[in-house]
Amino acid sequence: MGVWIAVGVTALGCYATKLLGLCVPQGLLDRPWVQRFAALLPVALLAALVGQQGFADGTDVVLDARAAGLGAAVVALLARAPFLLVVAVAVGVTAGLRMLVG
Amino acid sequence: MSSGNSTDDGVTGEQATRSAGDRAVVRDAVGVGLAVGLSGFAFGVTAAGAGLSTVQACAMSLLIFTGASQFALVGALAAGGGPFTAAAGALFLGVRNAFYGLRLATVLRLPRALLPAAAHWVIDETSAVALAQPGRRRSRIGFTVTGACVFAVWNLTTLAGCLGAEALGDTARWGLDAAGPAVFLALLAPMLRGGAERATAGLAVVLGLALLPVLPAGVPVLAAAAAAPLVLLLAGVVGLRGKRRAD
């Protein structure tokens, strides 16, 4: 049930956000500081999500196979690999390391 | 194309250039649709690995239809976050779509009656293609074709990912728990051009991990969003000082 509530709230909220942008009068969101904030907000959230989903186990911070996978993804990104390859490299290295360590 | 003596030549020439341009937009749009839509497979697998049912994962792709928010929602639910905490993180990530909409509204100039339908397709990919086009006609084609392609492929590959994960069994054994953070990393990387962006990202990681033991599941990520206003505030203070010194 909790999952469905989360899906419903997110779906309604995300739709409202998209529609708001199309309908809101120009100039209201067109201020420099609003634009700066809107550009930085996803940066903060995405970085926090990388940290949490890559290095957290419950409430503990851990370095495991995922960290190695993400490290490999960073190398792939620096080599300008396409999106899917970056994800595939992270998955492959994580799986490979787990297989090696047992 | 010669400058043309008769008006007929001029018109045909214009039409030829126009349809070649239209074809180029469609090609771009389909390409983006196929490439980005394929990460829907990763989403389906991640959702299944997080314990969501196939129906729940497919409902998310159909109704939420904005990738980063969906990955965030699944991650937050898997980490044991409550439904509203999890939704809040996903909604914060969706805020950027409002700013895409703002720019799209001026470029596409859609009739008011079409706005509610068009809104569902206001995402990273449709905005990127539509805003890159010269002229309203091509922007509209880009928006519509990209929207249709990404929507179709994203939903089909979500389903395929869920079914595929079922066949794979333990998704962690296949390293698929690394897919979510890798997707975020790949989305984040092109945003890290300036110092403010890098500072925000670094501060957010530290805040998010440091607050893990103190706050309930899912909340540390929301609290880490405070990195954005903090860095802006600091940049403002430093900027003012710099200006004063320059005076």
Concise description?
The complex is a heterodimer of chains A (102) and B (247). Chain A has 102 residues and is mostly helical.
Give a topology summary.
The complex is a heterodimer of chains A (102) and B (247).
Chain A: H1 2-23, H2 32-55, E1 56-57, E2 60-61, H3 65-78, H4 83-101
Antiparallel strand pairs in A: 1-2
Chain B: H1 7-37, H2 39-49, H3 54-63, H4 67-78, H5 83-108, H6 115-119, H7 124-131, H8 136-168, H9 179-188, H10 195-210, H11 219-224, H12 227-246
Helix pairs in contact in B: 1-8, 2-3, 2-4, 2-8, 3-8, 4-5, 4-9, 5-7, 7-8, 10-12
Protein architecture, described:
The complex is a heterodimer of chains A (102) and B (247). Chain A is mainly α. Chain A has a domain at 1-30. Helices cover 77% and strands 4% of the residues of chain A. Chain A is built from 4 helices and 2 strands. Chain A has a two-stranded antiparallel sheet. In chain A, a hairpin with a 2-residue loop joins strand 1 (56-57) and strand 2 (60-61). The radius of gyration of chain A is 19 Å and the shape is extended. Chain A starts with a helix and ends with a helix. Chain B is an all-alpha fold. Chain B has 2 domains: 7-191, no CATH class; 193-247. Chain B is globular and about 70 Å long. Helices cover 76% and strands 0% of the residues of chain B. Chain B has 12 helices and no strands. At the A-B interface, helix 1, helix 2, strand 2, helix 3 and helix 4 of A face helix 3, helix 4, helix 5, helix 6 and helix 9 of B.
